[in-house]
Description:
The complex is a heterotrimer of chains A (323), B (346) and C (352).
Chain A: H1 2-29, H2 35-40, H3 46-56, H4 62-75, E1 80-81, E2 87-88, H5 89-124, H6 130-143, H7 146-160, H8 182-216, H9 219-226, H10 231-262, H11 264-270, H12 275-285, H13 288-316
Antiparallel strand pairs in A: 1-2
Helix pairs in contact in A: 1-13, 5-6, 5-8, 5-10, 5-12, 6-8, 7-8, 7-11, 8-10, 9-10, 10-12, 10-13, 11-12, 12-13
Chain B: E1 10-21, E2 24-36, E3 41-45, H1 52-59, E4 68-76, E5 79-80, H2 86-92, E6 97-100, H3 104-107, H4 114-125, H5 130-143, H6 149-152, H7 162-174, E7 180-184, H8 192-209, E8 212-217, H9 220-226, E9 229-234, E10 237-243, H10 244-249, H11 254-262, E11 312-313, E12 320-321, H12 330-338, H13 340-345
Parallel strand pairs in B: 3-8, 3-9, 6-7, 7-8
Antiparallel strand pairs in B: 1-2, 1-4, 4-5, 9-10, 10-12, 11-12
Helix pairs in contact in B: 4-5, 4-7, 5-7, 11-12
Chain C: E1 20-35, E2 41-57, E3 61-65, H1 72-79, E4 87-92, E5 95-96, H2 102-109, E6 112-115, H3 129-139, H4 145-158, H5 175-187, E7 193-197, H6 205-222, E8 225-230, H7 233-239, E9 242-247, E10 250-256, H8 257-262, H9 267-275, H10 281-286, H11 317-321, E11 327-328, E12 334-335, E13 349-350
Parallel strand pairs in C: 3-8, 3-9, 6-7, 7-8
Antiparallel strand pairs in C: 1-2, 1-4, 4-5, 9-10, 10-12, 11-12, 11-13
Helix pairs in contact in C: 3-4, 3-5, 4-5, 5-6
Amino acid sequence: MLAFIVRRTLWMLMVMFAISLLVFLIFFHTPGIDPARQMAGRNPTPQTIAAIKQEFGLNKPLPEQYVLMMNHLFISRDLVSYTNRGLKVLPQIEAAAPVTFSLVLGAAVLWIFGSIIIGVSAAVLRGTIWDPLLMVVALIGISAPVFWVGEVANMLTQSKFHSSPLFSWVPPLGYTSFSSDPAMWAKHLIIPWITLAILYIGFYGRVLRSSLIESQSEDYIRTARAKGLSERRVLFRHSLRTSMITFISLFGLDFGALVGGGALLTEVVFGLPGVGYLTYNSLSNLDLPVIMGTVVYGAFFIVLANALVDVGYAFLDPRIRPT
Amino acid sequence: MTDSDQPPLLEVNNLRVSFRTEDGLVRAVDGISFTLRKGEVLGIVGESGSGKSVSMMSVMRLIIDPNAVFEGEVIYKGRDLMKLSQDEMRDIRGKEIAMIFQDPMTSLNPVYRVGWQIAEQIRNHEDVSKREAGSRAIELLRAVGIPKPELRVNDYPHQFSGGMRQRVMIAMGLSCNPDLLIADEPTTALDVTIQAQILELIRRLKSEFGSAIVMITHDLGVVADIADRVVVMYSGRVVEQSEKREIFYNPQHPYTWGLLGSIARLDRPKPPRLTAIPGTPPSLIDLPTGCNFAPRCRFRFDQCGIEDPPLVDKVGDGHLDACLLPVDGRASQREAVINPGMAESA
Amino acid sequence: MSDLVVEDGTRTQPVAVGSPLLVARDVKKYFPIKQGIIFQREVARVHAVDGVSFEVLEGETLGLVGESGCGKSTLGRCLLRLYEITDGTIEFAGTDITRLSRRQLRPLRRQMQMVFQDPYASLNPRKRVGQIIGDPLKIHNMGNRGSIKSQVQELLSLVGLNPEHYNRYPHEFSGGQRQRIGVARALALHPRLIIADEPVSALDVSIQAQVVNLLDDLQDELQLTYLFIAHDLSVVRHVSDRIAVMYLGKIVEVSPAEDLYSRPVHPYTEALLSAVPIPDPDASAHRERIVLEGDVPSPVAPPSCCRFHPRCRYATEICSAEEPPLVAYGTGHIAACHHPLNVEETPAAVFS
């Protein structure tokens, strides 16, 4: 098992290296594009361009450029945005990360509970009208684009019904950190949590339901019933336990992608200055250094999530544990 | 040893199981009746679609298909199991009547340790501590012949071989000392030498513990080995039913003859050809009128396609068969099917 | 073609027993088990087939019998070069095919075909039956579309299926019928040798008999040679002229079918035979049962020398010290054992 974990970690590092290489090549060596000009932002002065060339060693051979780049990113950590006049990239990302974490973590808690409730109910109530009804609700959750749901939520909570007791507590769009004011932090995040969770509750609810229904016809479920176990025990201790394997693997991957900046739309709609928001802004402004930073950051989380899911899978399913 | 003056442990009366489907009513089991006493082994023989598994799953009330329709009685220790609630059945399942299944690879939950699964059953029915359930699990594994049970009890199912897994299933089935064990093709998926070990174990259960066993199989050799009485099923119906020796030495139904004639046997000289039963079993939705076996039976006559042959005792001693053929002619007809070479030279 | 008419019980039809069609010499197939943190090293091997030598004579049916893990299915696939063997040679019709390239092998592949075990898994569910049977003909350019179709229909009726069902899908057929389709596919190229890997194990007993009879008839009609791989001893005895018994990757006994059952030489064969349930209650009750202890050992670390010695009731010291050679005991009976049963005279020859 240890060998497996070590091997997986090494693999992860290799993939990260490959990604960084790819990012570097795309940003610095796409033929026909002058990286210095791109990085300099709008209306650059010749001095800026010259400074960039100097800083990134664009006149030097490729491998050196790569090393310089990595140095700026990870070691000296002084990658600087030219569009936003000298704003350091990494601190920006570091400041944005907790916002994204807060958003995704809260939504994740909601969607895990929500999807288990929906999935289990639909499976148990199979054959009644509730099953298809629940699945239609889930489908709506999946189909409604998150930015639309977000905007509608905003419209309802911020303007239309803001005065009503239902939504009067909703603060204007923005974010307060947990450490400064926990209550406010939560109030800012509740509606975004629900919005983001809706999509995933729908998806995971459906996945769980079909996984549970499929497991009903498994031989070991038949054995569990033959042992005289109650239906509840069979459902939770046997069906759900094995269905959770897939559920958790999918969850790990989605969570990783979201933390890496995938909650972009939600953050923008709700004005939460997270990594996704940062990415969005930098894309609008073509702020190359920031884009590079967020891409590498996002990729890191996805790769990490993948590796954790692989290892976690081995914990959950004893059959695939390497002996 | 069977005590015939003891009341029967299990009495199945005219059990019928059908399933409503879009294409029609599937008559999976069309009237099976038998009794079973302590220490007796009943062999239920049939091929796929005969209804042998469905009938015993129904006895255990394990079929939860809302489209299933059940008729008849299943009297266990004086109570009709078909009338009990699921809660009452759960008290019986695993505790008084246990069932083990065909494929040990898929019949055990892959994510829980074997000891845990056995202990789960014990603690479900009896008020014992985890520790006690755990040590009973170890003893059970020892009793079914698994070496080093103290270590193996913490292994997962995939760490056992097929034969060992089946022993684990048997250990689990016996964990609460049931009076009746139903074994659904327990050795079909196993190698023949492992099958011999499992059958030996089952024989011990019968002789040492006096368990009543229902053995479902398609293998007549297995039946000849451990059964006391035999029920032969075809297409949902019982076609022949008697004490074991009668089935093998004095079979009365053409399907039984067909089965005996179509198996390759080690103990007899090789026939030039196996006497295959022509055709295939009928669809359970679209059953023929009259005898289900008639379309494939070489001895059929007009009445066979009209009347459902009743399951009746014609040769005495509780030997029932469902065939309209006159009894006197059967011996030579039987020989023509089972020993065609010999019959011609006679 | 010699007319061999043998007394009571065995075939009374002529058996054309000719020269060796398929010869395996010391065939070995090991599967590596790899472990390691970064670089995977081979730490152990699965000795699936561990030095197997035998011949299949033209026109005969050689039965290959053994339990799970003995390597019989792997051996069958090795013989057709579906696996690359680790060591040894394979000769087909006098040609050494062990290391032939795929292109060189292609024309020979027409002459050796396989029928597989699981009629539900071995037919592509998305292809029509006519396509499944016709594909081999297309691949080997044996005719245009029209002639292929008529060949396929002929094959369908040859195996007892309705030629009109050319356009149906596998799921529309029963298990026994699907197996017949598999047989038709194997016959499409008019092979000389058919390796049947457990062709009837997945079928009901009454359907087994039908398919066994079919294989029997086809052998006579088309002069086929069969290597019949199975675990069911009774069926193997019925179809075979000679039988080879495998245990843990090695052949432990080869004998004419009748002799195997009346006088087994190897203790494993004896145990195997005594384990087969007999549909005769009285005989069953009075039988001596040899119940082997424990499981078959792992092919990763097979016992030294005689593979069977840990479970053998006749084993002595020599059995774990010296590998028993395959020895001929007259009348075509060969076995590898230091304590052979049912033999009085000294061995006739040692097989090398």
